[in-house]
User: What shape does this take?
Amino acid sequence: MSEALQQAAKEYLIRYGGDTFPKLFRSAKGTIVTDSDGREYLDFTSGQMCATIGHNHPAIVEAVHRAGEKAFHFFSGMIPEVVVELAETLARDWLPGDIKRTIFINTGSEASEVAIRMAKMYTDGYEILALGGSWHGTTGGAGSISMASDRKGYGVPAPGVFVIPEPNSYRPYIPSLSEEESALAGLELALKMFDMQSAGRGAAIIVEPVMSAGGVLVPPRSFMQALRKAADDRGMLLIFDEAQTAFGRIGTRTGSEYFDVVPDIMTMSKTLGGGLPLAAVATTAKIEEVLFEKHFTFYTSHVSDPLTAEVGLAVLKVIADEKLIERSRKMGAYLRSRLEGLQQRYDVIGDVRGLGLLLGVELVTDRKSRAPAHALGALTTTKCFENGLSMNIRRRPERGSVWRIAPPLTVSTDEIDRAVDILDRSLRESLDEMAVRGTA
Assistant: This one.
């Protein structure tokens, strides 16, 4: 590793929060990332959940080369042919119900901003209902509806945001009820509170089909259906944030397909770009026509860029050609079985949950109290990295200590076995170390 570059990083970069690592990184391929010392790590976060088909898949490399021979960028009013091809592919093969018109931008935060902007203009309202475990981005509007993120110190958020308690089968808000009953009771109370406080200017309900940053929480199907009804009853739009659930990650084309609920607006990002900054927002022709008549704008320097559209087409083709949705279900079931095997051996693993290759493992001090094992989670995550496995852990005090495990859809059983063996070893070492310290 270049010591000069390491020092330059400390001197010239703004630190932007989140997990940080002691080394710089040089390259990535498939499920492996390599640091500046040449050491390899299994990446079970798919980068920032974006490398759906593996890091630097040959199809993505070819797509970038193809774009380089045609165009990386145009004036934003000049629609590239490849952008239309991508929109047509989404409408024909991937989007649910009557959703068929799409705008292409760059990031998940930006997609949330577009969706909110659409909903407010279409309904002439401004009030948004979001879930307690939500993560929709960090920009102004998106940050105001993100409850699983740091919210303090950034000034006054956008007005009109109301919270629905997130369904949590392991930590239900009303423990005396079943998972489904607790979720629906929390929603009913939240809607009553909203109706009391509302100025009559409802715009949208926004939800992630699986609340990933909130602890990999999978709502009951009846809850998602109730959200659809709640939006309809109030003249609001239903927005699905499918940044992490679209395009095979959870073993279906979309979260909408899994829950059999069609939203009015769908946002997509991470899993569409395969590691490049590509996001999309799609809605129905009816809604788009009204927005156009009202002069809707989201005109940025990189809207409809041909480079990322070329990559998006390549990602979707690989998912279809390599049958990665089916593979997500198969590999997800295998990974889950291995993790549940660890759960049988370690009482500190309180819960294993999720869908497809988006899984959560919650650590507790003991299964009776279900108190979050934050120190153990942090120590074990560090040891996993030292032993060659990169995983992401959520450790906000109110959210529990939850590993989010999401390798690329191309992951092999051998790589899963190696990763689980590293996790096993690291967890055992951490428990032994904490026992010696007297902090177990």
Remarks:
- The longest helix spans residues 413-437.
- DSSP finds 15 helices and 15 strands in the chain.
- The chain has a mean pLDDT of 95.
- The radius of gyration is 22 Å.
